[in-house]
Each structure stands twice: as C-alpha cells, then as structure tokens.
Write the structure tokens for this entry.
Amino acid sequence: MALVVQKYGGTSVGDIEKISHVAKRVKRARDAGHDVVVVVSAMAGETNRLVDLCRQVMNQPDPREYDVVVSTGEQVVVGLLSMALKKAGQDAISLLGHQVAIHTDNSHTRARIARITDGKIRENLKAGRVVIVPGFQGVNEKGDITTLGRGGSDTSAVALAAALNADTCEIYTDVEGIFTTDPNVVPEAVKIPRISYDEMLEMASLGAKVLQIRSVEFAKKYDVPLHVRSTFSEAEGTWVTREDREMEKVVVSGVTFEKNEAKVSIRHVPDHPGIAARIFGAIADAGINVDMIIQNISHDGFTDMTFTVPKGDLEDALSIVRPIADEIGAKGILTDDKVAKVSIVGTGMRSHSGIASRMFQALADDGINIQMISTSEIKVSCVIESKYTELAVRVLHNAFDLGGDSV
Ligand code: ASP
Ligand code: MG
C-alpha cells in the first residue's frame, strides 16, 4: 500500500463527464489499496475567463482581490469531484488551501509555498477518505487567499507529495508524457520513458510546457518521483526522477524550441568595467528576464553586445536601454523579433564530446544560419531566424536519432 498524490489538469476535468472519468481513476487507485490525495486544476479555460473578468473591472487588477477571484476555478472542481466519488461509492472530502493548510508568503498572484500542515489530510486518509485539494491556492499569514502563478497546480501537487512523503506524484494531463520534441512538429517524436529532474528543468524552461518549472525544482529538492501521464490512457507516461547511470547513456534526450524571444544588439559599447552591470542591472530592475547574452571581442576599446528578452518585453527593454546607450556613447541599437531558439538537452552531454559541433553541422547542412549560441552542462541552444524553427527541430531530431524508428 502506497500514498499517492494524483494531480489532474484542466483538460482532464473540463466537464462533468471527464470529472466522472477522473473519479473512476481515483477510485481504482483506492481500490488497489492506496491512500490517495487528489490535486485539481480549474476546468480548462476557466482561469483565463476569471482573469479576463478581473481585467474588465480593473486594468491592473488589485492583487489581493485577483487571488480571491481566480482561485475559485479550482474550488468548483474539488466539490464536484468529491461528489462524483461519493456517488461512485467512495468516501471523499474536499479541503481548501486554508483548511489543509497550505501556507504561503504574502506575494499575491505569485506566492511561494512556505510550509504545509498535513494533520487534517492524514486524519481523513486514515478514515478511508480520498482527500481532494484545489491546486494553485494557499493562505498567507493574514489568512488571505493567495495563488501560486499560472500553472501553479503542478507545484501544489508536488509540494503536497513532499510534505506527505508520498511514494509518487502522478501528473495527469492530456498528453501521454514528455516527448523527444513536439509531435505536432515532428510526427516521429517518441515518448521519453525516464528523464532526470535537471533535463526536465531544461526542457521546461526551454519551451516544453507540460510542467510548471517550479514544480520540477520542488520535486528535485525533495526527491519526489513524478509520473507524467495521460488521464485518458492506461499507458505508462514519463518518469521524472533522480539521475541514474542508464540516463547518462542517452546523449540527447530531446529537442525544444521557443519562438517567443527577441534579440537586441547594442553597437560600439565602451569596453569598461561596469558597463554590462549597468545595462543588465537596469533591465533586471524592471523585472525583465534576459536569456542569452553575447559580448564580442573588443576592438580599440569598443565592443558589441547582443542579448535576448521575451518578445512581450522588447519595448520595455528598449526604453531602458536607449538612454543608457546614448549616455555611454554607443552607436545605435538593432532589434530583431523574427528569431527563435532551438535547443538540444541531455544528461549524457556531460560525458560525451562533440555534441555541440554535431548540432551546428546538422543546422549548417540545411543552410540554417546560427546567430547566437549558449551552452550549459546538459544543453546547447542556438538562436536562428524564426522561419526555420520547424525545419531546425526536424533536422536536429533526426541528427540525434530521436525518432521512433531508429530507437
Ligand atoms: N488554474 C490555474 C491556471 O490555469 C492553475 C493550474 O491549472 O495549474 O493557471
Ligand atoms: Mg498545467
């Protein structure tokens, strides 16, 4: 007998029929003798609808009241699922964030979980009930409702699994697991059976949107094995776990891409101590995330600097950089929002050489020019012209033999 936390995403609880289906799955785990804690998202589309309602009233919604509104989506689902379980003959109880309680800090709209008290959950499990908890919400010191940021239900589930010392945390979604790349781009993409936390973190932050990044950080920190799988199939999904020997044999696990970036170049920047700190300090102060940065070799005391930011932040970044560029005597700013980042990720890169050059050669063979490169121990990313994104992903998937037929 195990303790399992099951998390069901918005598309898995999108209507009453689906909620009944989830109830059956939950009951099955319970019938198999396991203690089950269920974490749910709001019905698909519901959180967007609630956010939109807030914005209709207030352009920049009041954060405290925003959390009061947007946390309701999950509350509806916990009640409905609990009823569906009771109807199916399985005792169940819903416990809201403040009832559990899931304590968070005070940052409304993107709160962080500080600690979870598990007494009430354990009591109810002991009484034979399935406990159903809304994802995405918690309670701060003042007793106010907080939310964890979009996609936060994953983090709720993993945090609960960690607090309860659960045997596994199953993440039920509408895809079969984590794939070698987006199957919409490369139909030969295959499901990855096992992947390390670090690879998953790279994949998640590089544009594979199955799990909230914070949930993977949490899982890594507390060593919670995650099983990402489909609500609508019995197949095993992808296990996200601690790294092991087997994983090292796989050089490249996946190819990811991100189209939501823009490139900024500042030309002819004085090559002095403090200039980079000044530029990027100002951008960071505005809360803008800079991704890649390249500084060219300097000629006659001047250099060019290029970096990328999310497309939506380009205008803000420019309004910060322009006055600084003028002041330091730079010779102009160039921007390009028709860029994309393609990346290869794999734990095995640590112990294999020549991976980056294989990537560059594969892109070159198809005439794709590389504009920027960045690397970490387990990934290589290239910025390219965005119209070549899909081609580049196919080429790389092929170059590293990730397709179904070759495995
Ligand atoms: N319902 C929230 C959202 O849509 C949280 C979640 O589903 O993970 O962002
Ligand atoms: Mg999600």
User: Anything to note?
Assistant: Residues 52 and 59 are 10 Å apart (CA to CA). Residues 10, 41-42, 47, 73, 135-136, 150-154 surround aspartic acid (ligand 1) (CB under 6 Å). The first strand starts at residue 3 and ends at 8.
